[in-house]
Design a protein that fits this description.
Structural class: alpha/beta
Shape: elongated
CATH superfamily of the largest domain: Histidine kinase-like ATPase, C-terminal domain
Strand content: 15-25%
Number of strands: 16
Helix content: 40-55%
CATH class of the largest domain: Alpha Beta
Order of helices and strands: EHEHEHEHEHHEEHEHHEEHEEEEHEE
Largest sheet: 5 strands, parallel
Number of domains: 2
Distance between the termini: 35 Å
Length: 415
Amino acid sequence: MYEKILVVDDDYGTLKLIETILKTENYVATSFSNAPEALESMNKNQYDLILSDYMMPEMNGGEFLKIVRKKHTYLPFIMITALSDISVAINMIKEGADDYIIKPVSQDDLIFHITKNLEDKKNKKITDRIIKEKEILELENKRMVNWRAMYAAKDIKQTGHLIDLINRNINQGGGFVWLELLKNNIKKIDDKYFQINKSLVDLIIKTTEENKKFFDAVTFIANIENLKLKPELISYDDLINQLLHFTQDDKKELLTKYNRNLVFQRTSQELEGTLEVDMEMLKKIIEELIINAIKYSPEKSDILFGFENYQDANGQYLNLVLKNKPRQINANDTEGNKITGIPYEYSELIFDLFYTIEAFPTHLSEESWVNGTGLYIARTILRKHNAWIKTINEMDYTKDKPTSIVKILISLPLQ
């Protein structure tokens, strides 16, 4: 494969000379007499190296270099300059250029610098990749013991937590004490009717209702993979407007009750397209996440809800973002420190069914998915939308001092 080289010079003679040399050396040369046209070409084509004159009207080589470097870290950039401008060329090296060539351009000198910089580019990418992999490996080595210890204990903790959960729910309101009371306190009136104390009836109803809630939740989770969604095609703008109304109007009473302030943040980059979602289910997930943010944030603090646009090789996504300042919870990490937010080690564990960082998690009456089921249910339902949910820890540097922030991110594919 022949390397593609972009050449930019306002001097016609120099431009044609370089173009001729490159073609004789089997490079694919694309030439422009000004930087703006070259930038336009870069938006449509990929190049392996740039040769650019410094002294050009409209946009000089230094301005051109700054724009290139914003998007292309590794792309070799060689500045072409006159002998009298060597100091300028050296400054351009400091600004991000890889090399410079002095005019008049000679074939040997040009090919030497091109070959050298193309090779340096390959080596730099390899070196940076190795350094990055080493950093990741070192991080994982530091955390690996924690990961292994936590996952080794996870199943035991989850099983124990589930048994405790069942026991607690069955025994809530007296468990089956009502059964013994019923046996000993029921009075026969005739062959069809019995007399029972009203307080005992109230106890039976209360206990049964609590047990029904728990077993309804278990039944819902057991059938969640077979849950039939009602997806609809909805425009990008309509979805944002619906969620804006839902979070700021429909949930206003909930946020006021718990003394939290919802801050709405809309992306400045608007997109066109549609999303296929079950809106009622999506709103339910967001409601549970808001409740979760209320539970684990300090009173009177802000909860931020907003949107981000994201693109990768698989397409475009609309990211729904929920952020809150975390409070310290009643649990210690594997090193014995009090936990604030969602530490790195717990970022995936919290999506496991019945897993909670706290042994006795906080519960709000408005919460539907309780006892370590919420994030599991949310991820399972979102997976049916070809969407994903994850947690990220961030630092907010806009305050007087850096503040830890918990970020929940839902990525919805945009059609």
